[in-house]
Amino acid sequence: MPAILNTTRSHLDWLESEAIFIMREVAAECARPVLLFSGGKDSCVLLRLAEKAFRPGKFPFPLMHIDTGHNFDEVIAFRDARAAELGEQLIVRSVEDSIARGSVVLRKETDSRNAAQAVTLLEAIEEFGFDACIGGARRDEEKARAKERIFSFRDEFGQWNPKAQRPEVWNLYNTRVHAGENMRVFPISNWTELDVWQYIARENLALPSIYYAHQRDVVRRKGLLVPVTPLTPPQEGESVENLTVRFRTVGDISCTCPVASEAADPLAIIAETAVTDITERGATRMDDQTSEASMERRKKEGYF
């Protein structure tokens, strides 16, 4: 009796296949791509997808992180260890260096450096001649990112115009760019936060420890739990509390907040995520508490 093939595929299988196809399209069509790897959960998923797309060979692109200098130590240590484990080239370019060159000017040392990353990223793109930057942005994160194409075109100034993006009918991607132009490519655009955690659980992916429940000193500020650090000290009248928290997203210390949570493993986080009605950025990012227009303006200036 002939064997019967199992043709049942989960939604994660379909999302994975789409993302692998996109990565291979980048490798085939772009001359000098790079994968942006911060050590965060979405970029960890990208690394696993790249492994599935290109192993046992080397990745056809280096990894790169634009370091604000205000990152959590656990995330930077994980970033370096993971890149070494994979044996892949990791390029690090720092906002600190842009400040030293005078291309980034901040009002004060403790200002969020998230927006300033755009300048350093554009400098790195020019330095290495990258024509495609693969990143882990998802459309469910916030409204401005929902306007992105999977292959999102940037002009010779690194700027993004949401009204001048290319059609992607039938998953056909136009990767043609002139000298100085580049693409930002988002293989997991169609994933949600829940999809990401389900994939992390299925693939048993390692993550920085701060994604899971741990004890941390925080203060309550404008509806957020602000971590107590030298960059984010308590303000007058604020009381420090030691709570069990986890980070839903990681970034610049000056603007990234944890949430109260007892979830200590991916399955517990999946259960929490399935019932939440607040996006991860809306719940945890001080610099995203403004408007869609603010984020869109930053993206037009080169922000990822």
UniProtKB/TrEMBL annotation:
Listed EC numbers: 2.7.7.4
Span list, region Disordered: 281-304
Pfam families in the cross-refs: PAPS_reduct (PF01507)
GO molecular function, one term: nucleotidyltransferase activity
InterPro entries referenced in this protein's UniProt entry, alphabetically: PAPS_reduct_dom, Rossmann-like_a/b/a_fold, SO4_adenylTrfase_ssu, Sulfate_adenylyltrnsfr_sub2
NCBIfam families named in the record: CysD (TIGR02039), PRK05253.1 (NF003587), PRK12563.1 (NF009214)
Family recorded in the similarity comment: Belongs to the PAPS reductase family. CysD subfamily.
Name of the protein: Sulfate adenylyltransferase subunit 2
Higher taxonomy: Bacteria, Pseudomonadati, Pseudomonadota, Betaproteobacteria, Burkholderiales
